[in-house]
Design brief:
Layout: E1 16-28, E2 38-55, E3 61-66, E4 72-75, E5 82-86, E6 90-97, H1 99-106, E7 117-119, H2 121-124, H3 127-137, H4 141-155, H5 161-172, H6 179-186, H7 190-200, H8 205-221, H9 229-235, H10 241-252, H11 259-269, E8 270-271
Parallel strand pairs: 1-8
Antiparallel strand pairs: 1-2, 2-5, 2-6, 3-4, 3-6, 4-7
Helix pairs in contact: 3-4, 5-6, 8-10
């Protein structure tokens, strides 16, 4: 499951559509030394199963720790939405970050992880279980997050500057940038940039930008009052309103005309 940094509902979840049930989601502060690298820490709790969620692409990576089973996972980048159902009481704790930061911290190619959950020990080896054990043993969320943060502070290293410039350019433009401009700004040829993204990001530059633009549209659609669809499509550089609608349907599985009802349901399902 992916819990992101901005909003698909009032709690601040960008990459989750709530389909049914009731859950609690909370964000937690990040050490200032990691503020430019980690989007957020979060906890997710299901006290009364079942809860059904739709996970939508957000271009982020999550480290996830199940506080009940002691299992640890990494959630790689995905291009399509998928549904998950929690049929038991659940307590999860995690960190959300940009893929190139995760690649540096885990010393692995994000492209090799794929878009589903994978056991963290497939990347970190036996240390993943040791880390999960120390996190689960914490007496509070603050203590557990301190263990995770210590790990990240020690592990996050340098990112290829060409990749970091390209990722930053996509973020600044909310996905409104082509591969040619990314190549020019990052200092990597289009072909080499695609190769670098495969290693560090796990998605092609064009796909990563497309997801960023769709996510910005989703964020804007939650404003009060919500912007006019046609105006928003023009502001974000879509060919027209129909183009934006197709892109939103692609990453959410929901017709844009149903978005307001989706947001309302999220506010009912996710409790502070």
């Amino acid at each position: 499951m992916r819990l992101g940094d901005s909003a698909m509902n009032p709690t601040g979840v960008t990459s989750v559509l709530a389909l049914g049930g009731e859950a609690k989601f909370a964000r937690h502060d990040v050490d200032p030394r990691l503020a430019d690298k980690i989007d957020c820490y979060w906890t997710f709790t299901v006290e009364r199963p079942s809860v059904e969620l739709r996970i939508i692409p957000d271009g982020r990576i999550d480290l996830i720790f199940d506080l009940d089973t002691g299992e640890a996972f990494i959630a790689g980048p995905n291009q399509r939405p998928f549904d998950v159902r929690h049929e038991r009481q659940t307590r999860l704790l995690g960190a959300t970050m940009s893929p190139e930061i995760a690649s540096a911290a885990l010393e692995t190619e994000i492209g090799a992880i794929g878009g589903e959950w994978r056991a963290l020990d497939s990347v970190l080896g036996p240390f993943a279980r040791q880390l999960a054990g120390r996190i689960v043993a914490g007496e509070s969320d603050a203590a557990r997050l301190a263990v995770l943060e210590t790990f990240l502070l020690a592990r996050i290293g340098a990112v290829d500057r060409r990749v970091s410039r390209a990722v930053a350019g996509i973020a600044r433009s909310n996905g409104r940038i082509g591969v040619a401009a990314l190549s020019r700004d990052s200092g990597a040829s289009p072909r080499n940039l695609t190769r670098l993204f495969d290693r560090w990001v796990g998605l092609p530059p064009k796909t990563f930008a497309r997801i960023a633009r769709a996510q910005e549209a989703l964020r804007r659609l939650q404003e009060t009052p919500a912007p006019n669809f046609k105006t928003l499509a023009a502001e974000l550089g879509f060919a027209d309103q129909a183009h934006m609608s197709r892109e939103l349907k692609k990453i959410t599985g929901v017709q844009p005309s149903q978005m307001s009802e989706t947001f309302k349901r999220a506010s009912e399902i996710f409790k502070p």
